[in-house]
Amino acid sequence: MGLGVLLYVPNVIGYIRVLLVLISWSGFDNPAVFVPCYVVSIILDGVDGWAARRLDQTSEFGAWLDVVVDNLGRGMLWSTLYEWGWLVSAVEWCVFACNHNAHGAQWKTSFSESPRLIQAVMAKGFKTPTGVLAIGGLHVLPVWLYGYQQGVLSRPLCVPEWLQVLGVLVLAGGRLLCLCVEVWCVWAHIHFLTRDKQVERRE
After folding, report:
1. Are 30 and 40 in contact (CB under 8 A)?
2. CA–CA distance, 52 with 63 (Å, rounded to integer)
3. H or E stretch covering 96
4. Rounded to an integer, what is the distance from CA 140 to the centroid of its chain?
5. I want to staple 182 with a disulfide (CB 3.0 to 4.6 A). Which of 5, 24, 89, 95 is the partner?
6. What confidence tens digit (pLDDT) does each residue in 134-174 have?
7. How many CB atoms lie within 10 A of CB 123?
8. CB atoms < 10 A from the CB of 203, how many?
9. What distances in angstroms separate CA 135 from CA 8, 91, 140, 174, one per listed residue?
């Protein structure tokens, strides 16, 4: 990897996202700081991918950085919201290690032999109703829960209580879809490693 890759526009956006995540973490108890910083970081997650394709600046480092920032942000949020939140973060880091170790930057296209549910979630880069629901559960659920706990949904946004609960249920369903994908990824990685070792022993 050349040093020029570090200054690719999508990677610079990634560095900005790291800064926003750190600011949001330090201002966790202040919704006026946390919400805009964290939400902008999520929005930039889509912008950096668009910039990479538009400017032809895709790279393995960029793909790695993108997921690392995602995991850092969500891990911080889950772990701060709930005592058990680190479990969610641990699963996401485990999946990251499995996918990038086996497939690198092309991990999103490595599901051709997966079960139908997994393919439905991953189809067209999440650009299907099932994929959108899964991504909503992955990215939006922790922010929605933060807004629910901190009263942001009730006071500034005036979201009715029933709609807040419905939002949690729908987004939790999306997160369960993600969990199905994550469990399959880890299982498939372990299965392939075990199979390769068995082949080596036979040889």
Report:
1. no
2. 10
3. helix 85-102
4. 10
5. 95
6. 999 999 999 999 999 999 999 888 999 999 999 999 999 99
7. 13
8. 5
9. 26, 16, 8, 7
Tokens of 28: 């966790």
Residue 24 and residue 75: Cα distance in Å, rounded?
13
Q: Write down the residue that tokens 């880069």 correspond to.
A: 125
Please give the distance of CA 98 from its chain centroid, rounded to a whole number.
Answer: 14
Closest CA to 105 of 68, 55, 60, 57: 60
Tokens of 7: 């200054």
Residue 100, classified by CB atoms within 10 Å of its CB into exposed (0-12), middle (13-18) or buried (19+), is middle
pTM comes to 0.87
CA pair distance 33, 26, nearest whole angstrom: 9
Nearest CA to 77 among 139, 152, 142? 142
Q: What is the pLDDT of residues 73-124, one digit of tens each?
A: 999 999 999 999 999 999 999 888 887 766 656 666 667 778 888 888 888 8
